[in-house]
Task: inverse folding
DNA sequence: TATTATATACAAACATGAATGTATGTAAAT
DNA sequence: ATTTACATACATTCATGTTTGTATATAATA
């Protein structure tokens, strides 16, 4: 039974991505062979090489599957439409951070992908520009945060002399750290349960 | 010319560690072969296997070379002796964070090691417990920060209702994020020059 | 509509290279 | 005389990329 229909092929492709994610999580990207991925997906390396040029392309496919949705979410949660943006911008920031954590908490796929990206991957050669992509994406997030903080200052929600840009960067660094710790704390004893509370603390620190 | 003196052997060992660090930085831990490390250190794999059991042990040796000094530094910079600790604890925290960044800035070896550990290593199998070590070390740092913040509150240096524990955790997450970004920003355009300023911002946010 | 042609979605086989660990050899320090 | 501090040689395993084979879905044609 070869030559499946287009839908079947799409399913196969997705199963390969799923298998890759699981194997990457178990053994790390480098130590996972395409043979292992294929076996785990109940296909042969032939199928893998048909759908992806090599391991790097497969990695990128896995990454974009969760990366793109998160970016899309950013504008909605963080800024909203023109009317909404003036209502409780500080609360919006809090909500955005909290909902990101909640996605990690609820969605095993997203969580696994983040864990792979943060602790089971070496950013060299073909993977090096992923880091650049992450960094440039950070700039975007900081910019959005800055806008939100600016609104918060306008309506007098913030109780500090610091600029919106400074507040935004501090929040971004805080959240980067939180994400890293949250993901690395696989036992869940140090950060998993306290993340939302830590976000509240961080926001409260700048409330009037 | 074989069988060097003990000092020569120690030198050889150090050169292997240095070579490993440089190769890890270039190609990542997984993609660096012991042969490449040996060649880069102008020895053969025989020498490498003589000094280290395998790549993992070599990695640990590289790591501890910069990891241990940083831990030692913590008590001094952050808490100091009993007399000093009551003088400007907030400034001490700031100084501790700033000096850590400065070490990264000045010491190429430390910087390279951190870059390897954060972006060129997969924490699986033999490397998995390194993460645990990092996490448990974080707990230690947070505890020290908490003590410092408690002092700061005692002498009325802090202008917020939040507890010392909350402030400490927020600072720790901020600094984790900063370290990650700083190290990943190899171009130096986004964080390298602004790190000290970002630390000041973070500290100012909790000043009375 | 039935037939044919072609591209698709893989499986299987092949060829190559590279990394690891170990075992052995050896010259000099102790 | 015996370790020490390596270099050299050997054996094995494993991952990758490519090539070839093939059954079938799908498009083309008549």
Result:
């Amino acid at each position: 039974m070869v030559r499946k229909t287009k839908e079947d092929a799409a399913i196969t492709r997705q199963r390969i991505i799923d298998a890759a994610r699981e194997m990457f999580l178990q053994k790390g990207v480098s130590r996972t062979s395409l043979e292992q991925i294929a076996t785990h997906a109940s296909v042969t390396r032939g199928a893998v090489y048909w759908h992806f040029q090599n391991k790097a392309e497969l990695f990128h496919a896995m990454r974009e599957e969760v990366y793109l949705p998160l970016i899309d979410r950013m504008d909605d949660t963080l800024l909203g439409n023109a009317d909404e943006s003036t209502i409780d911008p500080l609360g919006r920031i809090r909500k955005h951070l909290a909902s990101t954590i909640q996605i990690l908490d609820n969605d095993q796929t997203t969580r696994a992908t983040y864990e792979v990206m943060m602790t089971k991957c070496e950013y060299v050669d073909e993977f090096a520009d992923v880091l650049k992509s992450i960094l440039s994406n950070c700039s975007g997030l900081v910019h959005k945060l800055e806008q939100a903080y600016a609104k918060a200052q306008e309506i007098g929600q913030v109780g500090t002399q610091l600029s919106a840009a400074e507040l935004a960067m501090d929040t971004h660094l805080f959240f980067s750290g939180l994400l890293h710790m949250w993901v690395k704390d696989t036992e869940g004893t140090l950060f998993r349960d306290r993340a939302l509370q830590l976000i509240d603390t961080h926001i409260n620190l700048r409330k009037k």
Q: What stands out?
A: The mean pLDDT of chain B is 94.
